[in-house]
Amino acid sequence: MNIRESYVEFGRREARGVSPAYERLSLAVSRDDELLALLDPLPPGRRQPNLLFGVVRLLGGPVRDPAAFHDFALANWPAIEAELRSRATQTNEPGRCAVLLPVLAALPQPLALLEVGASAGLCLYPDRYAYRYGEHVLGAGEPVLACAATGMVPPDRLPEVVWRAGLDLNPLRVTDPADVAWLDALIWPEQAHRRARLRAAAAVAAADPPLLARGDLVDDLSALAARAPAGATLVVFHTSVLYQVPAPRREAFAQVVRGLPGHWIANESPDVLPLHALAQPPDDTLHNVLALDGRPLAWTRPHGQAMTWFG
User: Fold this and answer.
1) Does residue 269 surpass a pLDDT of 90?
2) Per-residue pLDDT for 311 more than 90?
3) First and final C-alpha spacing in the chain
4) What per-residue string of b and e applies to 242-255 under the rule 16 or more CB within 10 Å gives b?
5) For 34-49, how does the pLDDT look when each residue is reduced to its tens digit (9 = 90+)?
6) Which residues contact 308 (CB under 8 A, 6 or more apart)?
7) Between vectors from CA 139 to CA 298 and to CA 107, what angle results, nearest 5°?
8) Across the chain, what does the average pLDDT equal?
9) Ramachandran bin of 134, using left for φ above 0, alpha for ψ from -120 to 50, beta for the remaining angles
10) What pTM was estimated for this model as a whole?
11) Which helix (H) or strand (E) holds 114?
12) Comparing C-alpha atoms, which of 224, 197, 107 is closest to residue 161?
């Protein structure tokens, strides 16, 4: 898929119905030859729409008006390019815990959680958040993670987590204002509820920071997993991470994680892992596939806002 097509795809499948501003903007960029020419020399992983839009937001640029975005981008391209080359989309959306919870709650307790591509580690606290699946509410306090769940009975208990660790090439700290500003910039413009959720989840993490290790998902995973306490079920998980990893490294990662004790939860785009027996997705918007130990279970929306169980 070329750059122009990737912006059309983002606008039509990811932003549509979720962010009118990003739908307009991504389609406008897809027709903007000047911007596409500036993006072209960048490595493929640095051209993606949500990274570009997040960088412009971080630098104080406009994202609701495509014409103003075009002017800002051309006037400030050296600064934008420098950020694009040094950053990655580290969207740390705690709402994704709502689609992980049904699997986590059903595993042998207690759990030792290890997240690959952890960013600031906000998805390492599924036991500390509250959830709303339709009329079914579980847990207490903030944030409350709402998820429209179909084809399943919502869980009736929270998991017991005795150890939580994250692995990331560039771990972020919720105690660092600059890191929190980047996480905020990655939230889409209209989504005030996600900003409030980010602040609430960051407060949870700051009160009891997880172990965050800087490292590679292939080279350093086994050593970090070995630090999990005996007597707890090790759960290695990741969500919307592997699309940033080249295919050979994805395959090497899968070999490493299959060799570890415990369980493996993947919540990823259906084209990044070889999965079989996939049901048809609910519609043509972007969905991830939730899988346990390589067995697909559900279609999930990227920010955890909905899941359709078929496993």
Assistant:
1) yes
2) no
3) 30
4) bebbeeeebebbbe
5) 999 999 999 988 999 9
6) 150, 151, 281, 282, 298, 299, 300
7) 45
8) 95
9) left
10) 0.88
11) strand 111-116
12) 107
Report domain extents, the chain. Answer: 3-86, 94-309
* Predicted pLDDT at 280: 86
- Name the one residue in this structure whose structure tokens are 């847990």: 139
Residues 209, 263: Cα–Cα separation, whole Å: 23
Query: pLDDT per residue over 91-108, tens digit each?
Result: 899 999 999 999 999 999
Q: Which residue has the tokens 């996939």?
A: 278
Quick: pLDDT tens for 135-177. Answer: 999 999 999 999 999 999 999 999 999 999 999 999 999 999 9
Pick from 204, 202, 210, 182: which is nearest to 90 by CA? 182
Count CA within 13 A, CB hemisphere, residue 153.
4
Evaluate whether 288 touches 240 at the Cβ level (below 8 Å). yes
Both structure tokens of 244: 């940033």
Q: Which two tokens stand for residue 201?
A: 């989840």
CA–CA distance, 115 with 110 (Å, rounded to integer)? 16
Which letter does DSSP use for residue 68 in this model?
H
**∠ at Cα 216 (209, 121), nearest 5°?**
20
The topology (CATH level 3) of 94-309 is: Rossmann fold (3.40.50)
